[in-house]
Amino acid sequence: MRKRRATLIVIRPPWRRWAAAVALLLLCALLLLPAAGLPIGAPAWWPTPVVVIDPGHGGYDPGVETDSGISEKDITLQISQTLAASLRTRGYTVLLTRTDDRDYALPGQRGRNAKRTDLDARIALAEAHRAVAFISIHCNSSPEATRGGAETFFNPSLTGSKVLAQAIQTELRKIPGMSLREAHDGSAYYLLQHLTMPAVIVEAGYLLIPSDRVKLVNPAYQRQVAEAVAAGLTHFLNSWSGTS
Length: 244
Ligand SMILES: [Zn+2]
Prior knowledge:
Bound molecules: zinc ion
CATH class: Alpha Beta
CATH architecture: 3-Layer(aba) Sandwich
Helix content: 40-55%
Distance between the termini: 70 Å
Largest sheet: 6 strands, mixed
């Protein structure tokens, strides 16, 4: 058997300096650009921005429940999974805070403490991945509401939150038959108080209003909401100045 000889490529001094400079520039781009939010349509090898989608509730916490046995946590998961798929086709890296029926409360925790631990885990996921946006999906449950419709909540003190909410609400209002609502101040929500990236809560409809309930369990309506949220987020990320 013939021995194979290892071949060494020797980089001569001038080229070595150039190679080091190019490698350094590439490293800087890779480290800095994800934090700034990357352009849509970047080449396939480029790091893509991370969007976190949060299906509201889960596990011990069903959210709103109807007399007919519908739980908010199931609808939020279905819409979130459709939304995640839509965003991935648009070039985003999407993380879901849950992909099944679970919560992040500690064993034995219930009530306010359980809720806080659960939400803190979802917030930590988004912060650890330096997400460019956080969208929490819910269903509204106001017993006083007399008309339905999807609506988006923002924190006016959180940079980007209101602009993102308005972009999403604009798209939600285009859904045929949608009750027209505006984006609202949701600064009382724990999630919106503690996240540091543009974040919103999308209430996909009113689960206790029969006309909305029929829609919320319908995969066709769930898809319409998901596509509207994806379109609003895409518009936001392509046009946001990063300052308001
Ligand atoms: Zn909810």
